[in-house]
Structures are given as structure tokens and as C-alpha cells.
Amino acid sequence: MTSLLIFTPVIVLLLLWVLPSLPGRRAKNLPPGPSTLPLFGNLHMIPRHRLDMKFNQFANIYGSIFSLKVGSGTMVVLNSGKAAIEVIDKHSLHSSNRPPSYVLAQLVFRGHHPMYMAPADRWKLRRKLYHQVLQESVVNKIQVPIIEVESCQLIRDICSKPEDLMLHPGRYSNSVTMSLVFGIRTPSHDTSHYLKLRQLMKKLISSGAIGATPPIDIFPFLEYLPERLWGNWKTRAQDLRGFALGLYSPLVEQDITRRSMGKRLDTFLDSVLDQNEKLDLSREEIDIMCGNLLEGGTDTTSTLILTLLQAMALNPEMLTEAQAQIDSRWRAPARGAFPHAMDNDYEIDGMTVPKGATVILNAWSVHHDPERWERPQDFNPSRYREQTQLASVYANSRDHLKCDHFGYGIGRRICPGIHLAERTLWLAMARVLWAFDIKPKVDAATGEPIPIDIDPVTGYMDGFVNQCLPFEVDVKVRSEKRRETIFRGDLVHAFD
Ligand code: HEM
């Protein structure tokens, strides 16, 4: 009896393994990858932290396109610009879906979050609405004047409160995005909506982390698992839903009240409400769309400004050069873009990227490709000396050698905030470099510079956005004349 109990599962597993196309097995035509276990495939090899680093190791062994089996599903990871352009950009019509995400997409956002929508009519409508306010000409006309003034406040904040350096870029990017969506500013880094958004982002990241909820997307029967067996995951999803809507809904309400008093602004929300008789979107759909823009536009942009400070403090010889040539791809903020899913089979170099596969653009490997760049780990903006146009121009080139970076993703799902982000970054970075000398901070006790941790594993947070952990740099205004300009009355009172 005992031996029956022991051997039956072993025999079942072996049978499953011998039969073709059973869970966990890699079919012959798939891109290569590490050997698999029956049922689980490569699930046990997927780390909880810094997935992109692990993918980089696999890419060194299996090549620029490799696959992992996750239960009966397939994940295909793209690690070179060429592979990314081929699969995600040129084949965009069929590689722009999203993999299932039961907890976030269904339980938390009830199918209304644009980031998780299939590229069908509902998603197209949202992209169209985003485009109405985020297209280049509108950003230049409506947003750039706001960015001009907000970036003045950024350098003034850094000048007057250098001890809060880590918080100022977030206030800046949040204020730009809040102005775009609601016409409401974020005057200080402790403004309530900004504090709540920061909390929400942490909650979203931790609930999307591996192991935080049962892997229902891989093993759908786990949906019926009593929630107390996995850290009350359903209740936590409900709480998260309440927290997100509790932030977005009152902001929408505030704008509706403003409009009822006859005051219309050039904001995203006003533009949606103007058209809503025809669009017939529910309040919840509108709240979540607005939230999507806040989530997409805040941490991404602020992280890049902070990494600029790291880069400048550690590369003093580049500081002057960087004032003209600053570039963003040293630590791309979105580390794996956002996963895509395939709607049909796609053949590439004799391999199949199968229908239903999750496709991941591993930005880390793409940006550190030794075949494209000598010493890819070095911060060296002069690599891009000839590439003087904005990222959107190169992202549309469909040529991986012209594409200077993949930080905004590519293809149909490319970041719709690209024009706004480029201008928000450019004005902030140019002003910061114009205003400050940036050096490592010196330890008063030892007289030695305090190290800045730029190690991709220990110096940055886990999660979708590659946020740097707190670090210290010495930021000093470059001259008294510059200080006078920073605090000039017309710039200080520009919001009055
Ligand atoms: C430096 C700043 C930014 C970076 C690096 C960035 C990067 C990205 C990336 C990699 C994606 C996923 C693309 C894909 O699925 O292939 C994305 C999506 C998105 N981003 Fe951004 N982003 C930035 C700023 C912004 C801003 C300012 C906004 C809006 C105010 C925004 C709104 C969005 C939205 C709504 C999506 C979802 C697109 C979709 O699923 O169709 N982003 N972004």
C-alpha cells in the first residue's frame, strides 16, 4: 500500500513527461532554454527578485531569444534590439496582447484598466483618448508651458531643501501628470494625493510580486483555493481596489464640481467628460483611466532624474559634456517593458514564438548588448552623439540599429506618454545641470566620499520600475548669479 502511494505519483509524472505537449514540456520548435520539470517547466528557476538579471544570465547561455516553460504556458524573452523589433514591432498586430493577470486585472480593476486590456476596441478607444492630449503638438502647446514652470520649482526645491533631494523629482513629475489629467497641481512632496499615489504604487508592485498571490494565471484551479490558505489574498485584492478608487474617484469628483461651476480646463478628464455623452463610459472606467495616466507618468520620469544625479556625481568628467548630450538609457526606468502576449504563431530564425506565449522585452540585456556596444556597463553618453532627435523618432524607425533605446517599449503598445516624458525629462535635466554641481557627498568623520550604490541588484528597488534606492550626493548651486535667477520673483510666483 505504502509503495503504491509513493509510486503512483511518480508514474503519473513520468507518463506526463513522456507524452508530448504536456504541461512543463518544451516543444521542439520553441526557442531554446533551460531544461524543464514535468508539470512545472521552469517555474522553479524564476526568481522572486531581479528577474531581468536572471534573464541576462539565460541569454548568455541560450542566445538572444530563449523560452521558459511555466506550467503549460510559454514565456519568450527577447534580449536584443533585433529580436525585439522583429517580434514586438514588425509583428505588432499580433504581439500586443497582455498575458492574463487575474488578481490585478480582474479582482482589483474589474477589467477596466487599460494597461491590461486586449488590443481590441475598448483599448483602442482609450489609446485614442490618451492621444488627444498626449500627441506631440498638444503637449507642445498645453503641457510644455506647465513643464517650464514646474521645472523651475524643481531646481528651487533642490536649492532650498537639498536634504529632501530624493523627493523633489517625484513631486515634479506628479505635478506635471496631475496637471495633464485633472488640472490640479502637486505643490509639495507631502501633498496628500501624491503621498497616496506613492503608497498605491508600492501596494500594486507588491501584489504583483511572485508569491504574493496564488499563481492563478498558470494554474487557474487555484482560484478556488480558500483565501486563508494564501494570506487572505482575495481580501487584500479588495482592499487594494478600495485604496485605488479611494484615491482616483475624489479627484475626478473635484473636477466634475469645477465643471458644474462653469470652469472648463484643457485637461485629459475635461476632454473625456466633454465627449462622454457619446462615449458612455462609466464613472469607474473614467476613474481607472485617469489613474492609469498617474501610475504611468510619475515614478518613471522621476527615477530618470535621480539616476542622472547618480551618473553625474560618479562621472565628473562627463558633467559638462552631459549638459548638451544627456541621455537616459544607462538605467532604463522600465526594466522589462510590460509583458506582451502573442495572438498567433510567429516564426523567427527557425523557431516558433507560439500563440498565447508571454513575450518579454528584457530591456536590461537589450541595453547592455556587447555586440552593439563596447563596454556596455559604462556610462558613456557620447555613444549617442549623432542621435540628436527625440526617442519617438527612433522608436518609429523599425530598425534596431537606429533605435537608440527601448525604454518606452515599441510597437502598438509603445508608451503613449513618450512626448510628454521626453519634454519633462529634458527640461528638468537641462535645468538641473545648468544650476548645480553634483558630487559624491563627503563623510565628515572620515573625509572619504560616501559610496553611491549603482549595482543593479543592490542599488535599485524591485518591481516594474527600476527605482534607485535612496543615495546621497552633494548638490551645490554653481554660482550666486544662478541662485539669483533660480529665486527670481517672476519664476517663484509663476503659479500665482
Ligand atoms: C520616462 C518616462 C516613461 C517611461 C520610461 C515609460 C515607459 C513605458 C513602458 C515601457 C510602457 C509599456 C509599453 C509596452 O507595453 O510595450 C509604458 C506604457 C504606458 N505608459 Fe509610459 N513611460 C513613461 C512616461 C509616461 C507618461 C508621462 C505617461 C502619461 C502621462 C505614461 C503613460 C503610459 C500608459 C497609459 C501606458 C500603457 C500603454 C498600453 O498598455 O497601451 N507613461 N510606458
From TrEMBL:
Domain of life: Eukaryota
Signal peptide: 1-27
Gene3D superfamilies: Cytochrome P450
Keywords tagged on the record: Heme, Iron, Metal-binding, Monooxygenase, Oxidoreductase, Signal
One Gene Ontology MF term: monooxygenase activity
Pfam families given in the database record: p450
Known cofactor(s): heme
UniProt binding sites for heme: C415
Entry keyword Lipoprotein: no
PANTHER family: CYTOCHROME P450 MONOOXYGENASE ALNH-RELATED, P450, PUTATIVE (EUROFUNG)-RELATED-RELATED
Family to which this protein belongs: Belongs to the cytochrome P450 family.
Name assigned to this protein: Cytochrome P450 2D18
Lineage: Eukaryota, Fungi, Dikarya, Ascomycota, Pezizomycotina
